[in-house]
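Hey everyone, long-time lurker, first post.

I ran two proteins through the pipeline my lab uses and got sequence/structure pairs for each. Pasting them in order. The first:
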Amino acid sequence: MGSNKLPKVIESLRGTLTGAGAEMRFHTRVEQLLVELDASGGRRVIGVEVRDLAHPEQECSRVASDAVVFATGHSARDSLELAIRAGARAEAKGFAMGVRIEHPQSWVDQQQYNGLRSEHDLPAAFCELTTQVDGRGVYSFCMCPGGWIVPATTHVDRVVVNGMSLSRRDSPFASSGLVVQIEPGDWCGERANGNGLHELCGGAPGDPTEDPLFGVRVQEALEMRCAKAGGGRSRLPAQNAAAFVRGEGTGTLHETSYHSGSTPTELHELLPTGIAERLRQALIDFESKMPGYAGEHA
């Protein structure tokens, strides 16, 4: 579809929802989930308490409802804490975390089309790779051919990135997320010592039920660590892919689509052991499948 067309699509969706009776409140934050005891002594939701951030000096208002759904996206993690404080049951959930890898689009085209793109007026080429390392999936996803790496953080002290392509897909760059599957057991017990996730935010729980949001804190801690390594102002820590595989220095950083800049960083020292080593092994495998994927130009 192209990220340039997405705003119009969202505007149309919003119009459809409001036409059906929905109310949109921008610059508004849920401060409290409201519950009360029912006749049997259990809890039931009766609404939320919200604050108008455009007028924070005003008192909170209430929105009554017998059902509340938190669709928090990737950054409203404080809403999870809010729900737990109100008595909601929580359980740890697996996720994927890693880096973004970028290649010249011309290289991807050559690999996929064998030099025939211009002759046959083909679109910017696409690729996805996957493997297994130590019982966990490692895979590329959210491939953005002819696109850009863009900031996606909502906090000034953290670094999060995403990819986007315009509908023409005519940027000279192609990028993908390259992530490691992480399950709750990876930050608990014996597996915790081998993965190093707990080193980001304190001791590891013995069992996922002890701290359902431990994985969330791991994410936040790594985002802050990356922001510090990048040097601020949304700069990214970055390393040449071939150098990362070798474990030797940062290598040569080439021109990138990311406009805020990057800082040479040895990612195997920045990332938790379990993530860094799985990424390294995956890149070795991907290089054998698609020569140049972990090359000097990546």
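...and the second, right after it:
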Amino acid sequence: MDQSYDFFVPTARGLERVLETELDGLGLKSIHQGVGGVFFRGTLPDAYKANLWLRTGNRVLLVLKEFTCKDPDALYKTCRSMPWDRYLLKGQTFAVDASTWDTPLLKNAQYAALKVKDAVADALRSKWGHRPDVDRHDPDLGVSLHVVQGKATLSLDTTGDRLHRRGYGSDRKKAPLKETLAAGLVLLSGWDGRTPLIDPMCGTGTIVIEAALFAAHRAPGLLHERFAFEKWRNFQQSAWKELVREAQQTGSDAVSCPIVGMDKDWSAVQSARRNAKKAGVENYVRFLRRDVLDFEPETGPGLILTNPPYGHRLDLPEDPQLFYKKLGDVLKHKCNGWTAEIFTGDPNLAKQIELRTSRRIILYNGPPECRLLRYEMH
């Protein structure tokens, strides 16, 4: 019988319940929420499965140790005592990332990562007679430290390149939403993949593409080039190949409902089409050049799910408040019977829509607090 481990899956704050539901749907056990993510207990193949199928998780971390840690010396001492030769072979490289919160003597995450790096290197030097090399870009073993209020979790990163990097995004600077957050918006909306979905301000198409992947029941991890666990000394290749084979056979070859993205910027529409092709969903979606203020649904009713410009993305030809007021007019007068889910980081602008919300969910797109606002047009 395979050994069981505790795993932690970080996610954007506000998506913990969605992620919990995803993990439960994969048949995983002992699922419970933590700060900024969700824990589960399972085998290494369970971690492979989570990496393959999760839409809202950022990565899958195998928990090595949880301990009290209030200063750098205690951190070094605990990490120095770990049996790192179980996880790293001679000649392999490693890297450490860290996050710290509300721990006065460990405010600097980079310094905390440096202490862990030194502890790992010193521990292995005592075993091997030399220090292992560090590779920050493509390590054989990723070590992760997370400290909240003096409580530390030390983990191994099974994922490597983060799960939001699906492999289809062409320009990360132009994409305001990570793929994992876009997928979270789709899941939070309650959309079932059977009714029309339109993003009338689609940009490079992230929301539309994630909706198509969901509707087609495609495993997003199939778009990932390689996972960190594939380089581990105890990698179970046959189990991984079987999971991939099952995922490839599970995906649908047809999506029955219209999934449409629109944008006034022709270059964004072209990027969205390229991204959809890379994601393998180009036959399930349509991208059109159209200004949202000229938007009128061709089918429906259904769901409007969009992330209008705000903050640093306010590249609008007119006053932002007037734009949001006009957006509200479009929803009110042209979208009868539809439900709209508007994701925004500016509540003052959202008020200009001048429609009553039926639901508000607080989410975080990185540090900024954002809201997913539901409007039902009847």
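Reply from user beta_strand_b:
Welcome! Quick read of the second one: Residues 98 and 145 are 5 Å apart (CA to CA). The longest strand covers residues 93-101.
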